[in-house]
Structures are given as C-alpha cells and as structure tokens.
Write a structure and sequence with these properties.
Blueprint: H1 2-6, H2 13-39, H3 47-54, H4 57-85, H5 90-123
Length: about 120
C-alpha cells in the first residue's frame, strides 16, 4: 500500500516534496517582492523606478526564483489533479508529465526573456 501511495504513476514522492518546497519559496519570494515594490516605493512607481529595481541583480534573482517556483507549483498541482481523475494509466501520465515540463520550460524561458533587457544591463 505504501509503495502505491508514492509511486511515480500516482504522482511521486519528489513531486510531492517539490510542491511543498515551491510553496515556501513562493511565500518568501512574494513577500520580498511585495515589500520592495510597494513599501519602499510608495508613490514612486513608474517605469524608471521599476527599471532601476529590476536592474539590481538580487531582485532579478528574486523575480526569476518567483517565476520558476510559481510555474512549477501551478503545473505540478494541475498535473496531480489531472492524474487523480483522468490520466490513470502510466502511459498517459507520462505523456502529461512531458507536456507540462515542455510548457513549464517554455514559460520560464519567455519570462526570463521579458527580464533580459535588465539582465543584459547588469552585465554591461
């Protein structure tokens, strides 16, 4: 019974563990993001101040971690729900997992691409 509960076909122990880790990362990174964005810049939110904030390497790291954790957490949660109700065979579950990994990687690349002008600014 225990092996059945943590088998890859039913979700997997690592997926369960990373779901919890990304939840903690989301809470911490979102708190940092909101505090820096809204408490330190009260009344000063415009393109220049946001650009200066995003150009800081530490805040870019926070944004990328927040993006990666959010994408993984959302897609893994959706994957688990779909595997519970519709994708009950191993083959379909594996295909679903591969599709969600591709979607996640594409979304992460697109998000980093959106931050790239400021990342490139840091390197110069």
């Amino acid at each position: 019974m225990r092996a059945e509960a943590i088998s890859k076909h039913r979700g997997g122990m690592w997926a369960w563990l990373f779901q919890r880790v990304t939840a903690v990362l989301l809470i911490v990174m979102l708190a940092i993001h909101l505090i820096v964005t809204h408490l330190y810049n009260i009344g000063k939110l415009n393109y220049d101040t946001i650009g200066a904030r995003v150009a800081h390497a530490g805040f870019t790291a926070v944004d990328i971690i927040l993006l990666a954790a959010g994408i993984f957490h959302a897609l893994n949660g959706l994957r688990m729900v779909l595997m519970d109700y519709w994708f009950t065979s191993r083959k379909r579950a594996r295909i679903l997992t591969i599709v969600f990994w591709v979607i996640g990687i594409v979304a992460l690349v697109y998000g980093v691409w959106a931050l790239w002008p400021w990342i490139g600014y840091q390197v110069r």
